[in-house]
């Protein structure tokens, strides 16, 4: 049984290596190199550890980290969707649900079910853990775009209202981080790297 | 106080972005693209979650993940050292300790101390968590080298005895994973991708 599980787990571990090839729209800090989903997931997980004291409520940190480590795995099949893309929906599409079934389905049943449940919890944004994980996912690209003179905002003509609406999700996870994020957004307008 | 902490934490979060540029010797699975330390840390953390049932002893999984997310951060200053390099020591060198002090030292004191302690615990390999984390760190490049027809073993002329000695560390974390790893090593000899 142990060995049967291990063989399945190794297949999963090999499959998710592909996350290292999925490029996001945002670039690394002060850089023109696109970030990939594996690096992004690492960074958010570490951010969650470091910023956990700023949550609005108690959280199960291990669960938040599990969410962040796996939240983009469906993009191996479904690809990265740009957050400001108005043509294509981002969240929990049929394509993403199929991807979750296929990729997490490589694991032994009990683990596949746990991973799919955690991924769905992240997508549904209702629990404390999902809210805080989401806040991390919105905060990192804000730091990146500010460091890159507007980054994807400039590149794709995204304006203040669009950014503000997307970033406000941070507040659901942490008032303290949101206060800081809001200042960054306003400063970006003042600096001319984000258009009102 | 909250805000003072946050500003320090953001500096740390920005600094560790550099881990995405530190290239390891090993390549991604079935690939000639070098893995970077951030991707590697993500992969090991996820492996620890998925493989936790195979530990030889009870572990604090959150601590293992913290170790794996931060274990290579010192390489931002100290660089990656090849595991089979006989010229240069790998573990807890003066250079690495200085790096730990500088980089984790960006955080508020209580967090800096916690991170340095966790990094040292990983380096010292005595606790259950450190042993299991180490097992992950040895297991991933084994999968990579096998998938790449010998990978760094072939590229740098590393032989069976050297590989066996380094990989045996896996057993301290998990007998089950070691049994599987040992088979992979022996199969590699049979296939001619690892020289006895």
UniProtKB/TrEMBL annotation, chains A, B:
It is an enzyme of class 3 (hydrolase). It holds the Pfam family HD_3. GO terms for cellular component: cytoplasm. GO terms for molecular function: 5'-deoxynucleotidase activity; metal ion binding. Residues 33-151 form the HD/PDEase domain. Its EC number is 3.1.3.89. Its cofactor is Mn(2+); Co(2+). It catalyses: a 2'-deoxyribonucleoside 5'-phosphate + H2O = a 2'-deoxyribonucleoside + phosphate. This is 5'-deoxynucleotidase.
């Amino acid at each position: 049984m142990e060995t049967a599980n291990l063989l399945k787990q190794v297949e999963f571990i090999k499959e998710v290596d592909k996350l290292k090839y999925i490029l996001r729209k945002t670039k690394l800090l002060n850089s023109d190199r696109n970030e990939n989903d594996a690096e992004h997931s690492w960074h958010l997980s570490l951010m969650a550890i470091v910023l956990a004291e700023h949550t609005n409520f108690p959280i199960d940190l291990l669960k938040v980290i599990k969410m962040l480590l796996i939240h983009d795995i469906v993009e191996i099949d479904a690809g990265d969707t740009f957050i400001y893309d108005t043509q294509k929906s981002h969240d929990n599409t049929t394509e993403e649900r199929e991807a979750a079934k296929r990729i997490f389905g490589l694991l032994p049943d009990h683990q596949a079910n746990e991973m799919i449940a955690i991924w769905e919890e992240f997508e549904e944004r209702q629990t404390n853990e999902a809210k805080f994980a989401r806040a991390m996912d919105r905060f990192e690209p804000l730091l990146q775009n500010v460091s890159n003179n507007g980054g994807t905002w400039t590149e794709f003509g995204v304006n203040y209202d669009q950014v503000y609406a997307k970033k406000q999700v941070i507040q659901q996870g942490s008032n303290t981080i949101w206060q800081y994020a809001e200042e960054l957004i306003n400063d970006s307008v003042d600096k001319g790297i984000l258009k009102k």
